[in-house]
Write a sequence for this structure.
């Protein structure tokens, strides 16, 4: 079986002037299977977001191959990438990234709008997704009328409503207090339980531990890839970081 | 994403900042309003002129002779002979000898009235009618009878309707009123009702040269009017040996040349007004560029959710087109307002009813042009938005 996501020696290198080169992603290879829940963890600047942008087809690698469901993303044009983002990927951002002028319901409908889903079906699916995240009473509110936790749940509903192959969450709890953060994580765990593939990005070890598998990055390299399994992963992870430092 | 959704987005975005949208539209509003009123003014003038020509009859030919200093002159009899020789081209002729001076009725001096010396055929040429008495007759002309026919303005104002049998004085000579013409222009002062006709033989005696230099012919048929003009010109050329000493113009030619003049005026003024449309278009482009920058993050979000370049392009082009179309509609309303104000002002200045009416074609044209301007000037900013890299757009604050 082909993995859902496969990195083959992927690099993302930024040239800042002649001498200063930043290796944000420095030769990463990994595979993520359909239905997995993976946490990508690492310190600030370790290359997590860059990784996620490549997975999310928002950015292209400088070098190396990224295969999504067996297809080489590097060979696709702008329109095809937009199609993949629309149909296969669901994003959850740290800053929610809702459209402020639209209502909660309209926000959730946007990806389906670009997909050409008919009005009635769009409405039904958006409503169902919002029910799933517990916001069925807020359909006609605007984002600014909601709390941070509620806004993040809207963005989860938006990612969910398009029934994507992968849900990508970059620091989804970063702007939330610890209790609301735990609710959001719990929701992600439930979605995983329902068969969704989830990639969670965080710098926080305890949050990473909600995922069964952890990929730890340091300076753009994978330093640990294995089960979270309590203490072992963390210790191993710290050793890995120490080795790089 | 379909047109309706893009349109809805555009309306939402315009309603969100009404003042800005209005200021953006202002150039378009003024431009479209100006074009509408200018075309309306042209139409009003054309209608007015056509109407007044129609009341005179369009198959008239006027002849003016400026042939001073030449030994030979054409006589009234020569002109009559011309009509007799060309019955298929010409029906009637009458001298039209203007008399300058004052008219005195009772003890009132009247200065506005136009006094002309004409022949007995003039009434047929001008297709006017009488309400009272008779017109000037052949014997009046032959014997230089001191009789006159007055317009309805004179009859109403100075004789309270009973003019026949009364006398008036033209440059000191007494004339007896023998007929009253039917009202043509509401019996207003200075209008075609403010006239006095006398036998041309009397008129030529009053003018200091003693010769008749203006004539009016009526054509036998409208189709042959140009041929008739040529025939008259050739006859006059034989006498004067040059085309510079006279002018022969048919009413339809004159009408045509008036129409051409008005068209030129409308085009020139319209082109000046259209510059404002261009400026309006640049204003729209400017605001759209600002808007794209302001909404970079929104564009990034939309792209991350699967918007294609054409979706973003469509969204911004439709927004620009909607803005300028709204401006166009307001401009048309503004133009109609100006038209009704213009009608009032012109009518009160000219003492004639000149209705400033914008044509349907002009309104439709102005609207299409404003939509077109929105599309053209919105395209560049929209292209810029569509081309944004999703990750850069998302990171933008
Ligand atoms: N557009 C860019 N131009 C230049 N350097 C960049 C760019 N984007 C990221 N980087 C660099 O790449 C490295 C990795 O950045 P990245 O955003 O992936 O880190 P991260 O792991 O997500 O960090 P954080 O936890 O703070 O979000 C950093 O050193 C960063 O400065
Ligand atoms: Mg990051």
């Amino acid at each position: 079986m082909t993995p859902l996501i496969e990195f083959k020696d992927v690099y993302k290198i930024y040239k800042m002037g002649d001498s200063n080169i930043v290796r944000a992603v420095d030769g990463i290879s990994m595979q993520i299977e359909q239905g997995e829940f993976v946490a990508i963890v690492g310190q600030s600047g370790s290359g997590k977001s860059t990784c996620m942008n490549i997975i999310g087809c928002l950015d292209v690698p400088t070098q190396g191959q990224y295969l999504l469901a067996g297809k080489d993303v590097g060979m696709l044009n702008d329109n095809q990438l937009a199609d993949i983002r629309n149909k296969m990927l669901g994003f959850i951002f740290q800053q929610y990234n809702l459209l402020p002028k639209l209502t909660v319901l309209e926000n959730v409908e946007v990806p389906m709008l670009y997909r050409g889903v008919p009005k009635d079906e769009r409405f039904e699916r958006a409503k169902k997704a919002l029910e799933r995240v517990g916001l069925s009473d807020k359909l006609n509110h605007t984002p600014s009328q909601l709390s941070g936790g509620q806004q993040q749940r809207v963005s989860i509903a938006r990612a969910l409503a398009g029934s994507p192959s992968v849900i990508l969450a970059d620091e989804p709890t970063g702007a939330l207090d610890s209790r609301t953060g735990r609710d959001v994580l719990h929701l992600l765990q439930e979605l995983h339980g329902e068969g969704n593939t989830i990639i969670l990005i965080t710098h926080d070890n305890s949050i990473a531990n909600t995922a069964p598998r952890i990929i730890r990055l340091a300076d753009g390299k994978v330093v640990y890839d294995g089960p979270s399994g309590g203490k072992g992963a963390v210790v191993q992870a710290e050793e890995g970081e120490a080795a790089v430092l | 994403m379909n047109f309706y959704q893009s349109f809805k987005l555009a309306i939402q975005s315009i309603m969100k900042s009404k003042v800005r949208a209005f200021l953006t539209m202002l150039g378009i509003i003024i431009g479209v309003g100006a074009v509408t009123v200018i075309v309306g003014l042209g139409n009003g003038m054309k209608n007015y002129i056509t109407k007044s020509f129609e009341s005179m009859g369009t198959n008239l030919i006027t002849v003016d002779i400026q042939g001073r200093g030449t030994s030979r002159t054409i006589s009234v009899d020569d002109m009559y002979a011309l009509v007799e020789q060309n019955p298929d081209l010409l029906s009637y002729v009458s001298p039209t000898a203007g008399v300058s001076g004052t008219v005195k009725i009772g003890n009132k001096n009247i200065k506005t009235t136009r006094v002309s010396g004409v022949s007995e055929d003039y009434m047929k040429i001008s297709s006017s009618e009488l309400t009272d008495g008779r017109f000037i007759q052949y014997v009046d002309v032959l014997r230089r009878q001191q009789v006159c026919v007055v317009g309805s303005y004179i009859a109403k104002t100075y004789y309270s309707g009973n003019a026949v049998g009364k006398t008036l004085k033209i440059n000191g000579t007494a004339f007896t009123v023998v007929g009253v013409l039917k009202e043509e222009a509401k019996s207003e002062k200075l209008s075609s009702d403010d006239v006095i006709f006398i036998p041309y033989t009397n008129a030529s005696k009053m003018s200091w040269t003693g010769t008749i230099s203006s004539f009016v012919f009526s054509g036998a048929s409208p189709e042959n009017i140009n041929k008739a003009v040529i025939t008259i010109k050739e006859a006059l050329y034989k006498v004067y040996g040059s085309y510079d000493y006279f002018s022969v113009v048919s009413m339809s030619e004159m009408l045509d040349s008036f129409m051409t003049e008005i068209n030129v005026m409308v085009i020139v003024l319209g082109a000046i007004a259209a510059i404002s449309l261009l400026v309006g278009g640049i204003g729209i482009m400017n605001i759209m560029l600002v808007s794209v920058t302001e909404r970079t993050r929104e564009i990034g979000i939309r792209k991350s959710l699967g918007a294609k370049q054409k979706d973003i392009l469509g969204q911004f082009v439709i927004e620009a087109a909607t803005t300028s179309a709204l401006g166009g509609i307001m401009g048309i309303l503004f133009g109609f307002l100006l038209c009704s104000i213009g009608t009032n002002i012109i009518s009160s200045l000219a003492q004639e009813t000149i209705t400033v009416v914008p044509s349907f074609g002009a309104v439709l044209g102005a609207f299409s042009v404003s939509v077109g301007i929105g599309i053209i000037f919105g395209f560049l900013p929209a292209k810029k938005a569509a081309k944004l890299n999703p990750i850069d757009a998302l990171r933008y604050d």
User: Anything to note?
Assistant: The first strand of chain B starts at residue 60 and ends at 65.
